[in-house]
């Protein structure tokens, strides 16, 4: 199974615990692209519809693609009150657009699952002249002097899953902002906006959050679950059952 599909196994947890995106990001999306009520939006990999709900609330007509059947079904239920939203259970690469073109293509924490050999050119072709592509995401960051999940549980990670190259401390906020931009093939220059956010979690909540991330989903269940139980217990006993998960939420845009 494609790793991107394994989120379907935890659709309800994903919907409950994954952080959403700031309202300011959607306000900037509209002001920077000129999209307004009635604009045609294609969303790639909508998950349970977290970003979709914000797009729909702005009056956009959204076609949301989601390959996970459980995620798509949950998104459809969450979005039942928005008649201008259609959730289609398919991948971006296989979806038949039937000649349709869009004002805006949005991918919220999902574009990395799209085959780059297909995705960039197809995104360009599905946009009308003057259209925009937008990506939303979160970069986990740390604040010096503040308890941080990886630092507090590094020994547990090495005990249960030694040598995993994914383990490590997240960057400081200023270092994340300073990271170089990557140009998008076949698109114009990118515009970037950052939004600092924080999610406070108890031990059980942190374990659930990690349970929905690709770094942990790729672990075998008999490794992942004992590791997450140990992390939750560490947060309860050593960190007062309260730990911050700091993010730089990011909006990146580029014109067709």
> Do you know the CATH topology?
Rossmann fold
Strands of the widest sheet, in order across it, are 3-2-1-4-5-7-6
* Terminal residue distance: 33 Å
- Within CATH, the superfamily carries the name Vaccinia Virus protein VP39
Low-confidence stretches: none
- Number of DSSP helical runs: 10
Task: Outline the biggest β-sheet.
Answer: 7 strands, mixed
Q: Globular, elongated, flat, extended or rod-shaped: what is the shape?
A: globular
Give a nutshell description of this structure.
The chain has 256 residues and is of the alpha/beta class. The protein is built from 10 helices and 7 strands.
3D architecture notes:
This protein has a single domain (3-255), classed as Vaccinia Virus protein VP39 (Rossmann fold). It has 10 helices and 7 strands. The protein has helices at residues 11-17, 23-33, 50-57, 69-78, 116-126, 149-160, 173-178, 203-211, 214-217, 221-238, and strands at residues 40-44, 61-65, 85-88, 102-108, 127-141, 191-201, 243-255. Strand 4, helix 5 and strand 5 form a beta-alpha-beta unit. Helix 6 (149-160) runs antiparallel to helix 10 (221-238) and helix 8 (203-211) packs antiparallel against helix 10 (221-238). It is globular and about 55 Å long. InterPro entries: Diverse_substrate_MTase, Methyltransf_11, SAM-dependent_MTases_sf.
């Amino acid at each position: 199974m494609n790793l991107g599909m394994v989120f379907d196994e935890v659709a309800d947890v994903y919907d409950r615990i994954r952080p959403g995106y700031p309202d300011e990001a959607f306000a900037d999306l509209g002001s920077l692209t000129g999209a307004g009520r009635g604009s045609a939006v294609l969303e790639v990999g909508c998950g349970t519809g977290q970003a979709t709900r914000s797009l729909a609330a702005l009056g956009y007509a959204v076609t949301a693609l989601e390959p996970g059947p459980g995620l798509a079904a949950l998104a459809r239920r969450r979005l039942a009150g928005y008649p201008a939203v259609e959730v289609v259970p398919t991948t971006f690469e296989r979806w038949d657009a039937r000649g349709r073109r869009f004002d805006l293509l949005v991918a919220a924490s999902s574009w990395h699952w799209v085959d780059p050999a297909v995705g960039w050119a197809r995104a360009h072709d599905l946009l009308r002249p003057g259209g925009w592509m937008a990506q939303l995401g979160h970069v986990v960051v740390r604040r010096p002097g503040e308890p941080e999940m990886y630092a507090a549980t590094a020994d547990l990670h090495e005990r249960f899953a030694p040598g995993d190259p994914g383990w490590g401390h997240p960057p400081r906020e200023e270092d994340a902002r300073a990271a170089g931009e990557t140009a998008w093939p076949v698109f114009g220059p990118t515009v970037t906006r950052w939004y600092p956010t924080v999610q406070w979690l108890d031990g059980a909540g942190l374990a659930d959050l990690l349970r929905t991330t690709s770094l942990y989903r790729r672990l075998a269940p008999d490794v992942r679950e004992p590791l997450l139980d140990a992390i939750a217990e560490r947060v309860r006993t050593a960190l007062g059952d309260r730990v911050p998960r700091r993010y730089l939420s990011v909006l990146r845009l580029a014109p067709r």
